Amino acid sequence: EVVLTQSPGTLSLSPGERATLSCRASQSVSGNNLVWYQQKRGQAPRVLIYAASSRATGIPDRFSGGGSGTDFTLTISRLEPEDFAVYYCQRYGGSPRLTFGGGTKVEIK
Amino acid sequence: QVQLVQSGAEVTKPGASVKVSCKASGYTFSSYGISWVRQAPGQGLEWMGWISPYNGNTNYAQKFQGRVIMTTDTSTTTAYMELRSLTSDDTAVYYCARDGSGLLHYWGQGTLVTVSS
Questions:
Q1: pLDDT for A87-104, tens place per residue?
Q2: Of the candidates A47, A50, A99, which has its C-beta nearest B47's C-beta?
């Protein structure tokens, strides 16, 4: 079973700074089937990036995804106040059907 | 627009079962699967399983095998998730999500299930 490890657990940054979040898979993620979600307190997650690097509809271009195989990153080029939230990576395809990472909390420094 | 509307919060006792519903609208129900994801208080997301409304096929996470049943009613475009033999560890927000080949673009609002004696 593929395990996704996200790091760091918490990222403390100021608005305007760059955030780089990591998601490492224990085995290669087939087809780069890797998604990034943002979740704010009390809300359901929303898709930011799918297929490792494609931005979902309506997502600002300050969010970008990259990587392949076992190492993936989510970059937020300049943090806006509304970007402070928890971010999850998720792989799909294969067995089990879905796996989530443990999450990275981006908090205001 | 695509909407998934879930049933309300539940409080139940250890050993009991709970059944959460998820009413879908705004798309062809049988064209997408439904995944169920839960989130314990202060914890991360945990995938529970998937069902195809088209043919009823299911795929459960190993952790929930034998304890979860997912069903759909195509006449009412509603998905259901029943979890049995509840313990306090099952206290969580349960989400349904429209599953497009593993991509969860649309989510319900979540249903809080509290297991307490």
A1: 999 999 887 889 999 999
A2: A99
